Amino acid sequence: MIRVAARWSVFVLTALTACGPGAEEGPSAPDHNTLSAEERAAGWELLFDGTSTAGWRGYGRSDFPSGGWTVENGELVGLSTTGDMDGGDIVTVAEYTDFELVFDFKLGPATNSGVFYRVREHDGAALWEVAPEYQVLDDTAYFAPEAEEGRTHRTGDNYDVHEATVRPTRGLGEWNTGRVVVDGSRVEHWLNGELTVAYEYYTDEWEALVAESKFPRGIYARAGTGSIGLQDHGTPVWFRNIKIRPIEQAVPLFNGVDLEGWTVHGTEQWYVEDGDLVCESGPDAAYGYLRTNAQYTDFELTATVVCSSGRRWMAWSSAVGRQRSLRLASSPVGSTSRMAEAG
Questions:
Q1: Does residue 309 surpass a pLDDT of 60?
Q2: DSSP conformation class of 59
Q3: At residue 127, what are phi and psi to the nearest 5 degrees?
């Protein structure tokens, strides 16, 4: 019997409903604070409708704070000019786990604000103490361009933890586009189409940087799900086109233990060994395949395969409105393939 040893250790399937985290720009629409048909189909949601503060509340309270924010000309405007943090921070009513967030912001003289994500309130703790912050700042009002001071406190930074690698901030009164991608433990900050910060939660490096920061240990950035927040730091700031696309988690197709969810076709022998999916050619050396019981329409399939010789392949079919199963196929040639890890 010829041992084909086509090995797959993990399969993951992700719905193809929008551009991935690696895209440079967020969604665009001809009008502000609207969603195109394509965006709606891709799962984007408006967090600000351009006319009201619906969907927002004050941090640590159920109502919306008065005096600090207003809606003008389709913009969510922070009106404070006292320079004091007076409790006007706001958060979304809805909570999110993994997502792509896009927002336009405009800086005024001495603007100091921020966009927070995975916000989970704690008694006695301010917004800035509990969640990571995409800093929104009139940098030149607070720091000289080359000063070492405040290297993690400028626009596009992960405030007080990670410094931006580039600083493509536009001038006062001009609109900037920020973007935050949170996918599991991976986080990216983008500014005007350029990646400024990339990091992973809870790595040794992250823990060390947080330990050196001003944030309280055990509270900061410990929530896996939370609201989106905007900071009222007592200075004027403008927002519009605040949109979010929840990211669906990948679906594992192979559990590493058995063939649950799959059906064998043909005489080839499929089994699990050391967490790998193994195929050995049957006695008639005929073509065969392994098929998922579930069917999928639009998807992204990721896996890793190592072939020593011969032909081994995966096959699938997908079209809008049509569902197809996924197939893992092995040719009758005596060769070896191994799928080691999914990406």
A1: no
A2: T
A3: -55, -45
- Count of residues in the chain: 343
**CA-based nearest residue to 171, from 148, 147, 192:** 192
Residues 6+ apart with CB under 8 A from 244: 44, 45, 47, 96, 99, 100, 101, 102, 228
Q: Are 276 and 313 contacting, i.e. CB atoms less than 8 angstroms apart?
A: no
Question: Which among 246, 261, 285 is the end of a domain?
Answer: 246
55-72 confidence digits (pLDDT tens): 999 999 999 998 789 999
Tell me whether residue 140 is in a domain. Answer: yes
Q: How far is CA 290 from the centre of its chain?
A: 32
Tell me the two tokens of residue 126. 């301010």
Domain ranges, residue 118 = 37-246
242 and 295 belong to one structural domain: no
Q: What's the pLDDT score for residue 183? A: 94
What's at 287, amino acid-wise? Y
pTM across the whole model:
0.69
CB 226, CB 197: distance < 8 Å: no
Residue 20 placed within a domain: no
More confident of the two residues 22 and 307: 307
pLDDT, one tens digit per residue, over 147-184 is 777 889 999 999 999 999 999 999 999 999 999 999 99
Instruction: Identify whether residues 192 and 79 lie together within a single domain.
Output: yes
In DSSP terms, 51 is beta-bridged to none
Helix (H/G/I), strand (E/B), else coil: 204: helix
Q: Are residues 205 and 309 in the same domain?
A: no
On whether the CB atoms of residues 337 and 4 are closer than 8 A, the answer is yes
